[in-house]
Every structure is written in C-alpha cells, then in structure tokens.
Specification:
Blueprint (H helix, E strand, L loop, with lengths): L2 H30 L7 E4 L1 H18 L6 H22 L4 E4 L13 H8 L6 H9 L11
Parallel strand pairs: 1-2
Length: 145
C-alpha cells in the first residue's frame, strides 16, 4: 500500500476509534454511577491524533514494515486504545470534553499536554503538521520558481 494513502487512512481510523471508545466508556461510566461527577477536563483529541499519526508515520518510515490494510488498522486500533487508557488514567472520575466541541474553557481544565507527555508524544509545530498533510517539501532545481 502506498504510504501517501496509508497515513491519512491511519489518521481517520485513529480519530474514529478514539472517539467511539471514549464515547462508549463515558456512557458506561455514567450508567454505573448513581451520582454524576462534577469534575470536568478538556482534551484536544485532534491535536493528540495528529501527534499519534506523526509518531506512527515516523515508526513506519524508520522500519522496514510492509504496509497492508490489516496492519494499518491494527496499529491504529492499538494507538486508539492506548490514548483512551491514558485519558481515563488522567481523569478517572471526570467528564471528558473534546476541545473542538466546546466554545470556551479555562486552560486549567486542558489535560492534553499531560496525556501527550505520558504517551511520549512530541509537540507539533505548524511546519510538522503541514509536512504531515502535504508530504515533505521537494527542492526545486535552480532557476525554477
């Protein structure tokens, strides 16, 4: 499978798996809890997913793995489970809100960087995100604009 197709596919699978798993877990915890929790935290799942994708891309390009659909799905599901476990570990009794789904929240509620640090994910620069989306910048021959 072409790596230029695999990376966006991995990105979509991880985001959907993480969102589904988180929603299911919150639903299950709310059903079991007789009194609602008043604690809330904010997590930027888009940011974490981008960091995970860049991390996975780096691991794939640094290894001699042959890519196929099953391997990509397994890797994405594994990373989504790992993300979910970290979110729950950092906020076991809290309502978790996706940062892109709320209008405003104090920065003190955002635990995104704590989760990324515990998962060993580096912060992404705008250049790294652009390279991830568009691929590495190609150098042009001298005289070409």
């Amino acid at each position: 499978m072409n790596k230029s197709i695999a990376i966006p596919l991995i990105f979509c699978v991880v985001i959907s798996a993480a969102t589904s798993a988180l929603t299911w877990t919150i639903f299950e915890q709310n059903e079991k809890s007789s009194t609602p929790s008043k604690d809330m935290v904010v997590v930027d799942f888009t940011n974490l997913s981008q960091r995970l994708m860049v991390s996975m891309r780096d691991r794939i390009t640094q290894s001699d793995m042959s890519l196929n659909q099953d391997l990509i799905e397994l890797m994405a599901q594994s990373e989504a489970r790992r993300l979910l476990k970290e979110v729950i570990k950092h906020s076991p009794n809290a309502v978790v809100l996706n940062k892109s789904s709320i209008v405003n929240a104090p920065d003190s509620l955002d635990i995104t960087d704590d989760i990324a640090d515990s998962m060993g994910l580096e912060e992404l620069t705008p250049e790294a995100i652009n390279e991830f989306i568009n691929g590495p910048e190609k150098s042009k021959p001298v005289g070409v604009k």
